[in-house]
């Protein structure tokens, strides 16, 4: 057969896609073995029945044909209103593109920011798809390491050294995989660098409803940043709608207009009945979002209590998101080695830090996504395994 394009063949660079443990755990479950999965950011509660009822109603009402490519007007207006209140910046529907999930939003945003071969900065550790997303648009990912010892806050000096010649920087706060919530000092430092080097800032804020310590600071709300920021959001995490694939990109009107053209040539929009359900979900307000976030804070606190009194596993303070990172370097194992043995010997699946970049080597990402009794059992097994090494 003809060879595939270089771009599609090299999306993951020299390594794999970082999902080996996840795929192995799923294969073990399919073979009938009990596996407790602390791998992906998938809620244990599922999408709420009333949201699904609205989705069904909208489908039965006939909203199953082509929807407007930029998104239905009421949903764009609702997202604009939500972000205007959060950012302190005035958004209208012309500033919003509805996309099939934040992943599609990140792809679109990098298309807007980068030309072929452009360096595109990202903070390491990073979500596993970030480098491949950047490569998919023809740009070149340039990871900038953050340190475990600094709570994985961005290293401003390292960003400043890497920034000359770059076209964009991708940030994510609250952060997946680390649980870090970027401080005002960190974000103001990134803003200063972005202005000095004329960078686009692509701000992935899908975990903005999950903040346990401090506060979430929307990047576009910083002085002078709205004109150079593309904010990516979704309802996946805030409303447990991961499979609905419903998100947005918010930014300057002229760029959103170009991204609507891109959507016309790629996704051709999001199904109308899903958008109607998303509009209904947003109208439930902050109380619904807080209810969905609460279990992750509770499990984070329980994990911290369970790990007290030992010095083999060090929990990096998780300030937000549905994850926390454990430093397991005291065991002498790599993150990959620990995760492989943990799965084989105890039936507990976690993501090795190496899946998220070089800066997370020797760490594990723990997803706080099992019901409390199963979560506690999984952590007991993990701790017992570590202390027995």
What labels describe this entry?
single chain, 389 residues, alpha/beta, Aspartate Aminotransferase, domain 1, Aspartate Aminotransferase, domain 2, 5-stranded mixed beta sheet, 13 helices, EC 2.6.1.-, pyridoxal phosphate, PyrdxlP-dep_Trfase, Aminotransferase
Describe the structure.
- With 389 residues, this protein is of the alpha/beta class.
- It has two domains: 6-46 and 287-387, Aspartate Aminotransferase, domain 1 (Alpha-Beta Complex), CATH 3.90.1150; 49-285, Type I PLP-dependent aspartate aminotransferase-like (Major domain) (Aspartate Aminotransferase, domain 2, 3-Layer(aba) Sandwich).
- It contains 13 helices and twelve strands.
- It has helices at residues 6-9, 20-30, 49-60, 73-87, 102-113, 130-136, 156-162, 184-197, 253-265, 272-282, 286-307, 335-346, 372-387; strands spanning 36-38, 96-99, 119-124, 140-145, 168-172, 200-204, 229-234, 247-250, 314-316, 323-327, 348-352, 363-367.
- It has a seven-stranded mixed beta sheet, with helices on both faces. Strands 1-11-12-10-9 form a five-stranded mixed beta sheet.
- Helix 3 packs antiparallel against helix 10, helix 5 (102-113) packs across helix 9 (253-265) and helix 11 (286-307) packs parallel to helix 13.
- It is globular and about 60 Å long.
- This is Aminotransferase.
